[in-house]
Specification:
- The chain has 17 helices and 24 strands.
- By secondary structure, it is an alpha/beta fold.
- It has two domains: 223 residues, Rossmann fold, CATH 3.40.50.300; 248 residues, P-loop containing nucleotide triphosphate hydrolases (Rossmann fold).
- A nine-stranded mixed β-sheet has the order 5-4-6-7-3-8-9-10-11, sandwiched between helices. A nine-stranded mixed β-sheet has the order 16-15-17-18-14-19-20-21-22, with helices on both faces.
- It is elongated, with a radius of gyration of 30 Å.
């Protein structure tokens, strides 16, 4: 074979949302794969999902069970999923129960039954579920683990010699990865369940796949009515970054555009921080409404309150917001399920952005987002947030995030969780005491590639929204929360 000739290996599409992306394009056709994981991790569901997505009458699937339970019992549970098609059972998908051969305590008979059925049916897909249960049967008690390992290797050899895409399902612990079957397998999918306090999160890892460049790391997945849904850590959007023109987008807040040099730069990530009640959500809503008024579409992801409550408050200031939801110009996403992952949130937001071709996205708020995450994901919140924002801005949308900063009255904390590095623009809100009154002030502390004001300006939260007032240049010590009026020189007073 010269340097220009290359064997073409077609892909076996999994039919599982997100899995082909993680696999780098799908499993290689005619590959021999191991689906490993503990009890209840989703191995059988995953195998059925791939089988129903690919089996045809011309190239049927053979599903061998060595479980003690009858095939009908297994099918009764599997048919609860939407991918299950009863019309395919018995024709495009055929089930063979090997329990009798296993109970005969003869591994050779088990192997010959698999070989005989495969040569008879000439399938395109072969699944053996779960061959590791043989370990608990009398055959292994008499023959020992060595014969079981030989059985698995001979089974793998037969499966790789046929033109079939095959799957072995087995319950393995991570300490067992030196088992010979891991060397023989072309692909290894590892399903696990991470437990942290009261939280359980499912994760998938592509340990190995020949002829492909899989996505590294652990990928969250859920088992839904549709089967498994995988949430890739690095969505496709990050590889297709859209270059933006440096146009300005109005915030919709009177006086704020002037502070930031004419408006937010399209495609940037903006973070607005401040204490509770400072008007962060109000500004975020005005930003979306400004886009809607300009003919743009938008998405709001809410974490801190129910969407009905959020919409009721927003509608009080912007009555047209509800109408925009009805016309499909705006989508409100409520993201606060148990054991949420960043990748699930990102997938939901990206789907909405794609549906609406949205130009503006609001995340309200990062503080509520972190609380909604499963404990195991909070440890990597910064890294996860970096991926989320990077993926969203890669699509060309402008991301506006709010974050609550808890502080003592005289403290000056501008951002929380050390996440300022992911943003292009940072606007801060805070309370100060002036002449015995509690006043709200805001300032711009960061804008990449653009000039901006460097002064504190007062603002009010009115019935129609936030309105920015004048600068507070006559005061010193604003950052302390208790500013003092600057004393003018005596000469300046006489000149008056």
């Amino acid at each position: 074979m010269n340097g220009e000739e290359r064997a073409v290996i077609r892909s076996f599409p999994s039919g599982v949302t997100g899995l082909d992306t993680v696999l780098g394009g799908g499993l290689p056709e005619y590959s021999f794969n191991l689906i490993a994981g503990g009890p209840g991790s989703g191995k059988t569901i995953l195998a059925h999902q791939m089988m129903f997505a690919n089996a045809t009458v011309e190239r049927p699937a053979l599903y061998f069970t060595v479980l003690g339970e009858p095939t009908l019992k297994m099918l009764r549970y599997q048919q609860q999923f939407s991918f299950f098609d009863s019309a395919l059972v018995g024709s495009a998908i055929q089930f063979v129960n090997l329990s009798a051969e296993v109970m005969e305590q003869n591994l050779e008979e088990v192997l010959q039954r698999i070989v005989g059925e495969t040569e008879r049916v000439k399938p395109g897909i072969v699944v053996v579920d779960s061959f590791r249960t043989i370990r608990g049967q009398g055959a292994v008690e008499r023959a020992g683990t060595f014969e079981l390992d030989q059985f698995v290797q001979r089974l793998a050899l037969n499966l790789t010699s046929w033109e079939v895409t095959s799957f072995l399902l087995g319950e393995y612990g991570e300490e067992e990865q030196r088992n010979p079957v891991f060397t023989v397998a072309d692909g290894i999918l590892w399903l696990s369940q991470a437990t942290d306090r009261n939280s359980v999160v499912r994760k998938l890892q592509v340990v190995k796949t020949r002829g492909r460049a899989p996505m590294p790391g652990l990928h969250t997945f859920r088992i839904t009515d549709n089967g498994l849904q995988i949430f890739p850590r690095i969505p496709e959007q990050t590889r297709k970054r859209i270059l933006q023109k440096r146009e300005r987008l109005s915030t919709g807040v009177p006086g704020m555009d002037d502070m930031i040099g004419g408006g937010i730069i399209a495609g940037d990530a903006v973070m607005l921080t401040g204490p509770a009640g400072s008007g962060k959500s109000t500004v975020a809503t005005q930003f979306v409404v400004a886009g809607l008024d300009n003919g743009e579409t938008g998405v709001i992801a809410v974490f801190e309150e129910y969407p009905e409550e959020y919409l009721a408050r927003a509608n009080a200031r912007n009555p047209d917001l509800g109408k925009m939801l009805d016309t499909g110009k705006l989508e409100l996403i409520y993201l606060r399920p148990l054991d949420l992952s960043v990748d699930e949130a990102l997938a939901a937001i990206l789907e909405a952005v794609d549906r609406l071709k949205a130009k503006r996205v609001v995340i309200d708020s990062l503080s509520g987002f972190e609380v909604a995450l499963a404990p195991t994901f909070r440890e990597d919140f910064r890294e996860s947030l970096y991926r989320l924002v990077g993926t969203l801005t890669a699509t060309g949308v402008t991301v506006f995030m709010t974050a609550e900063v808890s502080e003592a009255f005289s403290e000056a904390r501008f951002t929380s969780e050390n996440v300022s590095f992911i943003t292009d623009e940072i606007i801060v809100q805070r309370y100060v005491e002036i002449k015995g009154e509690l006043r709200r002030v805001m300032a711009v502390i960061k804008m990449r590639g653009s000039d901006h004001t460097h002064e504190f300006r007062s603002y009010e939260v009115t019935a129609k929204g936030v309105v920015v007032g004048g600068s507070l240049t006559e005061y010193d010590g604003i950052i302390t929360g208790v500013p003092t009026l600057r004393v003018k020189p005596r000469g300046a007073q006489r000149s008056k």
